[in-house]
Amino acid sequence: MTGLTRLAATEDLTLFGQDSWWLVLLKAVFCFAFLMGIVLVSIVFERKIVGWMQLRIGPNRHGPWGLLQSLADGVKLMLKEDINVTNASKAVYVLAPIIGAVPAFMAIAVIPFGPPGNEISIFGERTTMQLTDLPVAMLFVLATASVAAYGVVLAGWASGSTYPLLGGVRATAQVISYEVAMGLSFAAVFMYAGSMSTSTIVAAQEERWFAVLLPVSFVIYLVAMVGEAHRAPFDMPESEGDLVGGFNTEYSSIKFALFMLSEYVHLVTVSAIAVTLFLGGWRAPAPVSTVWEGANHGWWPMLWFTAKLCGLIFCFVWIRAALPRVRYDQFMKLGWKVLIPVSLVWLMLVATVRALRNEDYDIQQIVLYVGGVVGVLLVASFAFDAFRQRGEQEAQAREAAEKKDFDPMAGGFPVPPLPGQHLPPVPRRPARHPRELVATGGPESEGKEADGV
């Protein structure tokens, strides 16, 4: 039996689906409360951390150290006037925030907070620290993320305004571009874990986290999840500099609050997926788990999971405070010309390594084969870049040789020069010393002398 088959054979989901209805309802309420609590804390600490990084004071009025600022903002938004746009498509205009917010909560249902075998007691009932699991749990996560994008797109279209429509179109292109790279980064994890079940993926990281085994997939997912969550520096659908407010420009009160809520819930959700797929999930870090046998039992796994989740959210905030927003063409070029090709090449390498391991090849032979392929690709890319750079230099030299004087008035009105073009030198009268101007009586006297006065 090959290694991939052995991992697939260990997938056991019989522990799920055995809970009574009230216990399922209680666990669902806990998942919702966990998400909302992390969201409220994340909003406050984002404003606090960004304030500290920018040497200014963050929120400090509502509650101790301003910790109730998120609650105050939510109450304020709900009490504001709910404005309905005249030209909006009423049904879709109201439905769009709900479509954007509800799917954001659904992915947490398959995220494990503890090992399946470590059952906890709730009111005398033994249950796992996970709401449910599926053989295709990660496909469920991708499907819900795709549905959530419809809320943004429909909000931009239904508003009946230009700038929200542009924000919705940007969101569509952004989701299409970065979900491809995200799915390819997941595929490498599926190959190593032998399953799409989240509990099985975490169990496969017992010896080593996938962030160490699959570093390229981890980095690609980190970039893709920032774009997927519409976070700076990839917050193109709501770029206030050129779209006023983006897809949510025409929304107010509770509908606007739902969009903001869905954004932060997505932030928590994509971070939880990163922890589950690449950072060992609920497992304690290696030094702790090796020294302390009880680190992964009881309620401790949930503590490790929450700590990793908060660390990733802090990285989100750090990126927002450190990096400026990129141009939209640069953003799309990064997705289609960098992330997707790199993901495809990396997935081919991972598949090759897994195939060789399943055929019982020695690890040294695998490294030799893979290193040879990578070396050939690097040499070919360097040669291609060298020839391309040489051709560009020759083309620039020909353009410089054929360059003519630029006439800014050739079209009948003044135009600025293009890159590589230069204005002809403007003839100027040489400046005279101030003493000479005083001796001659200044420029006015020169004009009078010239007129014979």
From TrEMBL:
Residues 397-407 have a biased composition (Basic and acidic residues). One of its GO terms (molecular function) is NADH dehydrogenase (quinone) (non-electrogenic) activity. The keyword Glycoprotein does not apply. Residues 397-453 are annotated as: Disordered. PROSITE patterns: COMPLEX1_ND1_1, COMPLEX1_ND1_2. Its EC number is 7.1.1.-. It catalyses: a quinone + NADH + 5 H(+)(in) = a quinol + NAD(+) + 4 H(+)(out). The chain crosses the membrane at residues 20-45, 92-114, 134-159, 180-203, 209-227, 264-282, 302-322, 334-354, 366-387. It is found in: Cell membrane; Membrane. It is a multi-pass membrane protein. It holds the Pfam family NADHdh. It is an enzyme of class 7 (translocase). Residues 414-428 have a biased composition (Pro residues). Its main location: membrane. The keyword Oxidoreductase applies. Keywords: Cell membrane, Membrane, NAD, Oxidoreductase, Quinone, Translocase, Transmembrane, Transmembrane helix, Ubiquinone. NDH-1 shuttles electrons from NADH, via FMN and iron-sulfur (Fe-S) centers, to quinones in the respiratory chain. The immediate electron acceptor for the enzyme in this species is believed to be ubiquinone. Couples the redox reaction to proton translocation (for every two electrons transferred, four hydrogen ions are translocated across the cytoplasmic membrane), and thus conserves the redox energy in a proton gradient. This subunit may bind ubiquinone. HAMAP family: NDH1_NuoH. Belongs to the complex I subunit 1 family. NDH-1 is composed of 14 different subunits. Subunits NuoA, H, J, K, L, M, N constitute the membrane sector of the complex. This is NADH-quinone oxidoreductase subunit H. It comes from Streptomyces polyrhachis. The lineage of its organism: Bacteria, Bacillati, Actinomycetota, Actinomycetes, Kitasatosporales. The gene is nuoH.
